[in-house]
């Protein structure tokens, strides 16, 4: 019994760890897409931020300064995306695709030139990484059955960025449904003209949304390289930006559902590590590739209306042209 | 921001603006090269030498160009129908399965007889992989961009399973299929042109040229192409004209996927002679840059495919001579080309428009003044 419980707990701990960047990227995408701007570029922002954070954390020895740098890189990407899709009314999908390639190319290129380790950054240690935070009495309670592993194992012992990610969920829900900014954010994605008529700047609102997007996904990227891992490695986002996008659609652009979708996709990833090379009763050996593909298959089924229906914000992807 | 678009002369739209946008991409690339302490002009010289300077390099340039033509046409064709197919990568990967299955099944058959069969299989597999997102957009309303991205990931998982668990023969250590029989394998052009020195450029090069012509005819000289372009301009207009959008979307996506599938003929049945894990290696994505840079026109696609062929082959040479500049620099330039020609094409358009108005108002050509005024009234 205890063995099963501790197995389960360790699976859930991994789930939380791998879900953290997904949640941050997914919420980031939520702000952007709620404001009417498609963000295919989450993947590139994660990658760019992870690189910026690891590089600066290594140079300064401080994970926090690294975090600021990571967010800075991600904001710069958001800025370019904003220029292309808000000012120049370009195709938002193309801009996102371009930014993904830009991040993949620049991080490896600059990494290889600066550190001469084939695109990876040197290992971070000590304060250059985010350490685990232990809740009060976590150590004392760890021996207590059930409560011990739940409190000391599952809840305690994550990095500050994980707690930020999970706190950002109710915060986003509150901003979205309970504040004036949230109302405007939702309207600018559904019907920008109404907002324009009411005398508000569509452009500025969309830029604000993109800034929040850049910040959140920047934290997610920094998490990858300075909390989950201890250095930047080539292409380390590994499709997480797209998984987050899938989760966003899965959640129908709502914050709590987004968190659950990310946890579900995170659980799939955790199971994938857990089940590697193991035989399951009745099913036999599940190929890891099947687990890898599952989030994408689920999203396609959902989008096609086979599992519920996902209806995006009405103004999504359309540049706003102010009339004269 | 919302000033009416001024009708620029055609050559400005077709030649000047794309050239300016691409130059801007290269300018920024040059600044990056400068930032890492290398000489960008010297870098360009080395790249051109690597791509054209000797037979071996030139052969590789043509080999890359072949792939990029197929990938670029796949994106360009769909784009005319208003569809953005980002799934060329996955479609080409799955097409590799069709190519290898047929190539292995007919092992020993002369290549001239095997080639059509391999082409059909590649087109079929790539086409079906693109038809799924096409069907989902046409019938279930899910956006083709998102589904093609998802299909790319599914293709990666599926193919890596099939290659490592099913196709891989026990006597080979790395993840790849059995080799295609030497008789059946699409022959390299170096068999006839010794100057090319056993480079992987093969008969598929001519297929690529044929595809350029074929796509041109399909888009501008057939009823189907007319319907496709009508839908691309306005779905409603096409519907009122009695065209079935759903059918058009599905057929267009299938042809687009089949074009991407031709990469398998060049690589799997030709250059590699076997199905390698992740053999597409980003070629499908290069197609996006190629299509935008070429303004989705076959002539443009051909030229920009050649430019990217030069970039890829020259980039190898460059990485060899200037170790500070890795292959990823090419990916960066590719990204900048997509950004400037695809997403930010309006950025340079405004200044060019202003320059034109200014030069006209200065009285170089007084006849155009009333015309200009009339246009601005619109």
From TrEMBL, chain A:
Superkingdom in the source lineage: Bacteria
Entry keywords, A to Z: Cell membrane, Membrane, Transmembrane, Transmembrane helix
Entries under Pfam families matching the protein: BPD_transp_2
Molecular functions per Gene Ontology: transmembrane transporter activity
Membrane topology, as annotated: Multi-pass membrane protein
InterPro entries xrefs: ABC_transp_permease (IPR001851)
Membrane found in the keyword field: yes
Transmembrane segments: 12-32, 44-61, 93-116, 160-177, 209-226, 293-312
GO annotations of cellular component type: plasma membrane
Cell compartment(s), UniProt: Cell membrane
Signal peptide: none
Name of protein: ABC transporter permease
Source organism of this protein record: Pelagibacterium lentulum
Automatic annotation (TrEMBL), chain B:
InterPro entries: ABC_transp_permease (IPR001851)
Compartments, as annotated in UniProt: Cell membrane
Transmembrane segments: 12-36, 56-80, 92-111, 117-136, 143-163, 201-219, 248-265, 324-344
GO cellular component terms listed in the entry, alphabetical order: plasma membrane
Keywords: Cell membrane, Membrane, Transmembrane, Transmembrane helix
Superkingdom, taxonomy of origin: Bacteria
Mode of membrane association: Multi-pass membrane protein
Main location: membrane
UniProt protein name: ABC transporter permease
Lineage start: Bacteria, Pseudomonadati, Pseudomonadota, Alphaproteobacteria, Hyphomicrobiales
């Amino acid at each position: 019994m205890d063995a099963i419980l501790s197995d389960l707990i360790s699976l859930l701990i991994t789930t939380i760890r791998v879900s953290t960047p997904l949640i941050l990227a997914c919420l980031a995408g939520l702000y952007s897409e709620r404001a009417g701007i498609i963000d295919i570029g989450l993947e590139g922002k994660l990658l760019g931020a992870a690189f910026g954070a690891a590089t600066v954390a290594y140079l300064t020895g401080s994970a926090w300064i690294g975090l600021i740098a990571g967010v800075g890189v991600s904001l710069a990407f958001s800025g370019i995306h904003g220029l292309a899709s808000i000012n120049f009314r370009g195709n938002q999908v193309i801009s996102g695709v371009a930014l993904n390639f830009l991040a993949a190319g620049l991080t490896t290129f600059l990494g290889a030139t600066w550190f001469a380790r084939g695109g990876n950054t040197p290992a971070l240690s000590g304060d250059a990484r985010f350490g685990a935070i232990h809740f009060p009495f976590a150590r004392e309670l760890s021996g207590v059955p059930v409560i011990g592993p739940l409190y000391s194992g599952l809840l305690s012992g994550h990095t500050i960025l994980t707690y930020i990610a999970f706190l950002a969920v109710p915060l986003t829900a509150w901003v979205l449904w309970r504040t004036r900014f949230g109302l405007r954010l939702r309207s600018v994605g559904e019907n920008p003209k109404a907002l324009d008529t009411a005398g508000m700047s569509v452009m500025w609102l969309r830029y604000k949304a993109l800034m929040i997007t850049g910040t959140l996904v920047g934290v997610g990227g920094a998490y990858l390289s300075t909390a989950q891992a201890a250095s930047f490695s080539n292409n380390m986002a590994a499709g997480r930006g797209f998984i987050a996008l899938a989760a966003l659609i899965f959640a129908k652009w709502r914050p709590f559902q987004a968190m659950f979708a990310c946890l579900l996709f995170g659980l799939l990833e955790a199971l994938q590590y857990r089940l590697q090379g193991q035989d399951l009763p009745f099913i036999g050996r599940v190929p890891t590739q099947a687990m890898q593909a599952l989030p994408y298959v689920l999203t396609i089924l959902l989008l096609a209306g086979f599992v519920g229906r996902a209806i995006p914000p009405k103004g999504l992807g359309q540049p706003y042209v102010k009339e004269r | 921001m919302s000033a009416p678009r001024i009708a620029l002369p055609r050559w400005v739209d077709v030649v000047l603006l794309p050239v300016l946008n691409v130059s801007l991409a290269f300018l920024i690339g040059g600044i990056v090269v400068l930032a890492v302490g290398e000489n960008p002009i010297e870098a360009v010289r080395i790249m051109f030498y690597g791509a054209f300077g000797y037979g071996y390099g030139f052969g590789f340039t043509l080999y890359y160009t072949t792939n990029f033509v197929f990938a670029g046409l796949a994106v360009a064709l769909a784009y005319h129908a208003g569809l953005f197919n980002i799934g060329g990568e996955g479609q080409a990967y799955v097409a590799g399965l069709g190519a290898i299955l047929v190539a292995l099944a007919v092992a020993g058959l002369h290549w001239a007889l095997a080639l059509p069969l391999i082409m059909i299989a590649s087109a079929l597999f790539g086409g079906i992989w693109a038809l799924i997102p096409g069907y989902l957009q046409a019938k279930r309303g899910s956006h083709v961009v998102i589904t093609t991205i998802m299909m790319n990931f599914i293709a990666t998982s599926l193919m890596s399973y099939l290659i490592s668990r099913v196709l891989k023969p026990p006597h080979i250590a790395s993840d790849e299929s059995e080799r295609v029989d030497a008789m059946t394998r699409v022959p390299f052009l170096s068999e006839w042109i010794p100057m090319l020195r056993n480079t992987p450029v093969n008969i598929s090069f001519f297929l690529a040229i044929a595809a350029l012509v074929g796509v041109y005819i399909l888009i501008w000289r057939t009823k189907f192409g007319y319907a496709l372009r009508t839908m691309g301009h306005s779905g409603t207009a096409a519907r009122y004209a009695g065209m079935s959008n759903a059918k058009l979307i599905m057929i267009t996506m299938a042809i687009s996927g089949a074009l991407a599938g031709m990469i398998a003929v060049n690589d799997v049945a030709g250059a590699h002679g076997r199905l390698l894990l992740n053999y597409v290696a980003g070629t499908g994505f290069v197609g996006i840059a190629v299509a935008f840079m070429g303004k989705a026109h076959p002539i443009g696609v051909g030229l920009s495919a050649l430019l990217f062929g030069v970039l890829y082959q020259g980039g190898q040479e460059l990485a060899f001579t200037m170790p500070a500049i890795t292959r990823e620099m090419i990916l960066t330039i590719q990204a900048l080309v997509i950004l400037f020609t695809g997403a930010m094409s309006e950025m340079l358009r405004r200044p060019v428009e202003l320059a034109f108005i200014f030069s006209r108002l200065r009285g170089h050509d007084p006849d155009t003044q009333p015309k200009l005024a009339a246009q601005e009234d619109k």
